[in-house]
Design goal:
315 residues, mainly alpha, globular, disordered N terminus
């Protein structure tokens, strides 16, 4: 690909997303699998959001944050899967620079949003278990509203600098991205520009958001576990732990898949493995979050059943 001027680059630079080109005989089965997963994510998370909105008993901070998480999971998976479904069904795998940067921006933004919101939800469980008498004071409706808005604003601002730096790179050696979406890592490797500042930005912003949210979540659960261990009754310990079991499961699922994707040894890296681990990271959490919360929480399970009755058996 020839180098282009900055003014015309956004219109002339195009990328070919190789997707799963090495599996030509599996294009239709893969399309059906990913379509089923996507529809399940949409239905499951929409059902959770609707059940919370329609049930006034669930208008508490924990469930308000959960409804936000459901919207976020739908948005997160929608940055990659619809385009992947389109490429698998049409075999048209060309994406413009603007399209690629847009997809990358929202992918990073919603990943950051997930981390920040999970840490806020961990703090919510910490206050509920360790300071129950001050719960309504520390997490008032106004505080919850500010927290939810702050999560979205912070996450949408975070990728701006990085996306701007990547947009200004020159791509003059190859235009083939060996992935199923515009993932930052393989995209940057295609550049023939100096990527020093881009890498520094990745470490700074990634460390700022990733480490701060992880530490807040970790510290919250250290206090939660310490508090639970000091409860003398086994029934009391079990009942208290059950209030945060669903969230803890989601946290372990999210950070577990993230660690597998980004922290594995370089000897384990290959484009094929990277696609597989990326699929786990992108699909697993939004797909399983509704299941985890409906299975672990009796109060929500009842509200969820009422929602399904309204949906499928309206009077």
């Amino acid at each position: 690909m020839t180098e282009v001027t900055a003014e015309n680059k956004s219109h002339t630079v195009q990328f070919t997303i190789l997707c799963f080109s090495d599996l030509p005989h599996l294009q239709i089965p893969l399309f059906m699998i990913f379509l089923t997963i996507y529809l399940n994510v949409i239905f499951g998370n929409t059902a959770i959001f609707s059940a919370i909105v329609l049930n006034s008993h669930l208008h508490t901070p924990m469930y308000i944050f959960l409804s936000n998480l459901s919207v976020m999971d739908i948005s997160y998976i929608s940055t990659t899967l619809p385009k992947l479904l389109f490429m698998l069904s049409t075999q048209h795998k060309v994406m413009s620079l603007i399209g690629c940067m847009t997809q990358m921006y929202f992918f990073i933004a919603f990943a950051c949003m997930e981390m920040i919101l999970l840490s806020v939800m961990a703090y919510d469980r910490y206050v509920a278990i360790c300071h129950p008498l001050h719960y309504t004071l520390l997490l008032s409706p106004r505080t919850c509203l500010i927290a939810n808005i702050s999560v979205w604003v912070a996450a949408l601002l975070e990728p701006i600098v990085f996306t701007r730096l990547v947009t200004n790179l020159s791509f003059c050696s190859s235009n083939q991205i060996d992935h199923f979406f515009c993932d930052p890592s393989p995209l940057i490797k295609l550049s023939c520009s100096d990527i020093t500042y881009v890498n520094i930005t990745i470490y700074i912003l990634g460390g700022l958001v990733g480490m701060s949210t992880f530490m807040l979540t970790l510290v919250s659960y250290v206090y939660i576990i310490y508090n639970i261990m000091n409860i003398h009754s086994a029934v009391g310990r079990s009942k208290t732990f059950s209030t945060c079991a669903s969230h803890l499961t989601c946290v372990l699922l999210f950070y577990g898949t993230a660690l597998i994707l980004y922290m594995r040894p370089s000897s384990m890296y290959s484009p094929k493995k990277d696609k597989f681990f990326s699929l786990l990271y992108i699909i697993l959490v939004p797909l399983l979050n509704p299941v985890i919360y409906t299975l672990k929480n009796k109060q929500f399970k009842e509200a969820f059943k009422k929602f399904l009755n309204i949906l499928f058996y309206p009077r």
